[in-house]
Model the fold of this input.
Amino acid sequence: MRPNTIMPWDAAIAAAIHGARDGAAFGAHQRLGRTWAAAVIAETGDGGAEIPALVGRPVSLAKILDEYLYVAFTMGVKGDWGTDSGEWWKNGNRG
Done:
């Protein structure tokens, strides 16, 4: 259920965005995710129904936001960008 409904995080994301990894920071993380999700859904004009087709695979919006944060913060910290073709999700991060 988690990747479909709750935007996950890790230590790098928590530190970069919220400065901590505690209950208050997790609540803030979920509220931020809800704000981002609402903006994405509003921009699609179809209530978000076509998001999986736009991404090219069946995936929840919570997981898409998690993948963005993973690329922007976690992989940025590690410097591990996955395959040479840039398809980073092939390394165990796919939907």
About this structure: Residues 83 and 90 are 8 Å apart (CA to CA). The radius of gyration is 14 Å. Confidence is low (pLDDT under 50) at residues 79-86, 88-95. Helices lie at 2-5, 11-18, 23-44, 51-55, 61-78.
